[in-house]
């Protein structure tokens, strides 16, 4: 009888203390791990670029950009290629992230991918669709290809973007 009373009291206290509408707090250290890709993989780099744009996060984006970074695009109005380095890339990206309401980046097909024999350099040409919402009545869209050169010191290190050539309609 005593055992039955203890079992009933334990069950009642368990039911009273359990609130199914208040799940437990996630105390894991890797909260971003479910959002971020593995930067030691090429796909992880693309996933992290998308994360950076979606959440307008220059701290994640900055980790992807190599110190010797070069961005290139074609200015068709002036018929010249325009380039800039890492510092201007980070300023431009920070300004973009700060001054827009929303950015949607969708990576599409990989057109080509080639790497060196040591697997420390890879070139990837991948399609993308980009929508930048400045305000509800002003949405800019671009699509085309990102031609990226990625580098790393060895196979255990994360990839970084050394060169980004924008081949889009923007």
List the helices and strands in order: HHHEEHEEEE
Report how far apart the termini are: 80 Å
* Second CATH tier, the architecture: Roll
Number of domains: 1
Say what the CATH topology is: Nuclear Transport Factor 2, Chain: A
Sheet with the most strands? 6 strands, mixed
CATH class wording: Alpha Beta
Low-confidence stretches: none
Number of strands: 6
How large is the count of helical segments?
A: 4
Strand order of the largest sheet: 2-1-6-5-4-3
- Overall geometry comes to globular
Radius of gyration, in Å, reads 24 Å
Report the average pLDDT across residues. Answer: 88
Range of strand content? 35-45%
Structural class: alpha+beta
Helical content, roughly? 25-40%
Short descriptors:
170 residues, 4 helices, 6-stranded mixed β-sheet, alpha+beta, Nuclear Transport Factor 2, Chain: A
Question: What would your notes on this structure say?
Answer:
The protein is α+β, with helices and mostly antiparallel strands and 170 residues long. It is built from four helices and six strands. A six-stranded mixed β-sheet has the order 2-1-6-5-4-3. Helix 2 (42-54) packs antiparallel against helix 3 (58-64). 10% of the residues are buried. The mean pLDDT is 88.
């Amino acid at each position: 009888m005593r055992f039955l009373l203890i079992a009933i009291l334990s069950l009642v206290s368990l039911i009273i203390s359990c609130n199914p509408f208040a799940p437990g707090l996630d105390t894991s250290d890797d909260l971003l791990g479910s959002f971020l890709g593995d930067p030691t993989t090429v796909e992880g780099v693309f996933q992290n670029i998308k994360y950076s744009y979606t959440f307008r996060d220059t701290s994640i984006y900055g980790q992807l950009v190599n110190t010797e970074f070069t961005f290139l695009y074609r200015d068709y109005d002036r018929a010249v290629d325009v380039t800039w380095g890492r510092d201007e890339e980070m300023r431009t990206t920070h300004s973009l992230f700060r001054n827009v309401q929303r950015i949607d980046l969708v990576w599409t097909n990989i057109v080509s991918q080639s790497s060196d024999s040591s697997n420390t350099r890879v070139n990837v040409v991948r399609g993308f669709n980009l929508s930048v919402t400045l305000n509800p009545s002003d949405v800019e869209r671009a699509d085309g290809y990102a031609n990226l050169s990625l580098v790393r010191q060895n196979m255990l290190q994360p990839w970084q973007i050394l060169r980004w050539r924008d081949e889009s309609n923007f």
